[in-house]
Amino acid sequence: MTEDPKPLTVKKGRAELTLEQIAAALPIAEDSMFMIGEQWSTCVHAARGGNWRLATLCAKHVRKLINTFGMLNPHYAQGVETFKPLLEAVVSACEKRDAAAFEPAFKAATDAANAEHVGTGHGFVLWKIPPTHRGDLELGPIDLAPKG
Ligand code: HEM
Question: Tens digit of pLDDT for each residue in 85-95?
Fold first, then answer.
């Protein structure tokens, strides 16, 4: 009888992890969505406050998080594809510092996200803009020159 081959492992600090352990450590849907909600909130408050570089950073962070969410949860990938162009309109408005374009783009993307929540059986997750930001970031204009 042949022995089972030793599972492939990767060192991380003092740990030696199998692929299964690495996969288990990846964010679950709930983790990704929690982080997306935080970034989305900062995005709108920063845009309204005039800190457009922070708003852009947050919108782009949502892009990265939603892509990872779609990759790790292929059963939600179609919903992610529907959401992506609406998110790009938000990113674009932030980059252009265009408050008039930002508001309808942000609303359209938020409405689409909430429609996805309904469509995925999570209609009880109705995201809305919090009246105030949690307060740990400057939301007003900070016009430092970009690096490089
Ligand atoms: C900016 C857009 C979005 C925001 C702000 C948002 C926000 C949230 C929040 C706050 C939750 C609850 C997380 C928690 O348990 O604490 C959630 C859950 C969820 N969202 Fe979103 N969401 C967005 C876009 C989407 C999109 C595009 C989809 C596409 C399918 C989606 C699918 C889901 C699903 C499936 C859950 C339930 C996750 C679970 O607990 O298993 N969301 N979302």
Answer: 999 999 999 99
Dig out the tokens for 94 from the structure.
């932030």
Strand partners, 11: 16
Query: Using an 8 Å Cβ cutoff, are 65 and 32 in contact?
Result: yes
Mutation test of ligand 1: which of 32, 33, 34, 41 has the most ligand atoms closer than 8 Å to its C-beta?
A: 33
Length of the chain equals 148
Q: State the amino acid at position 73 in one-letter form.
A: N
What is residue 120's DSSP assignment?
A: T
Beta pairing partners, 90: none
Reported as type and span, the H/E element at residue 95 is helix 77-95
- Quote the Cα angle for 94-70-44, to 5°: 25
Structural domains in the chain, CATH included, are 29-119 (1.20.120.10)
CA distance 148 to 30: 37
pLDDT digits (tens, 9 = 90+) for 119-143: 999 999 999 999 999 999 999 999 7
The whole-model pTM stands at 0.93
Among protein residues, the one with the nearest Cα to ligand 1's atom 28 is 116
State whether residue 52 is helix, strand or coil.
helix
